[in-house]
Design goal:
By secondary structure, the chain is of the alpha+beta class. The protein has two domains: 86 residues, Arc Repressor Mutant, subunit A, CATH 1.10.10; 76 residues, Alpha-Beta Plaits (2-Layer Sandwich), CATH 3.30.70. Helix content is 49%, strand content 16%. The chain contains seven helices and six strands; from the N terminus they run H-H-H-E-E-H-E-H-E-E-H-E-H. The strands form two sheets. The protein has a four-stranded antiparallel sheet, with helices on one face. A two-stranded antiparallel sheet has the order 1-2.
């Protein structure tokens, strides 16, 4: 597999990941969010090119194929395929900011062991990149809803047991934070 994936390959892999997400998620809200993005992704897919990509992904062990009793074939994203797809999503993740602030602070706190230092540093960097402010070494704050994004990031870095997400109504230095986040 080439070092650099084409945009087309990324899109196809993310489509497969969306299928996996649908299969593992029982939340109607999450299903709706996934269904909402699928048509946009599908509209640019050339079916013949997709067939070639499926063969290539199979050869590169990013997917497995399962023959069903009715003659159809199910495409299954392998663990390495899932990681590859998640890598592209982590690079593109953004937090949507609503028109107005709901007066809730979102805190992400963590206590990640030293043996996972790289993941801890990557989490810190990603939070800063997304616009979080560091209150303390392992406490970050953000004014807008970002629970899904935090869940995704912690899953990607495999640190879910060490990270907590909190929504708070009051923090004693709120005036200063409002200035830093341009909320006044």
């Amino acid at each position: 597999m080439s070092k650099e994936f084409s945009t087309y390959k990324k899109k196809a892999l993310l489509l497969l990941l969306a299928g996996v997400a649908l299969g593992f998620n029982s939340s109607p809200r999450q299903h709706f969010r996934i269904y909402k993005i699928l048509p946009e992704l599908w509209k640019d897919i050339d079916r013949e090119k997709l067939r070639r990509l499926v063969r290539e992904f199979y050869r590169d062990r990013l997917i497995d194929l399962k023959e069903n009793s009715d003659g159809s074939t199910t495409i299954i994203l392998t663990e390495s395929g899932r990681k590859k797809a998640l890598q592209y999503k982590i690079d593109e993740i953004k937090i949507k900011q609503p028109g107005s602030w709901d007066n809730l602070w979102r805190l992400t706190i963590f206590d990640i062991p030293e043996k996972k230092r790289r993941a801890r540093d990557a989490l810190r960097n990603k939070l800063r990149e997304l616009g979080f402010l560091e209150l303390q070494k392992s406490v970050f704050i953000y004014p807008f809803s970002c629970r899904d994004e935090i869940d995704f990031i912690t899953e990607y870095f495999e640190i879910r047991p060490y990270v907590r997400y909190i929504e708070a109504r009051f923090i004693n230095n709120e005036a200063e934070l409002k200035l830093k986040f341009n909320l006044v």
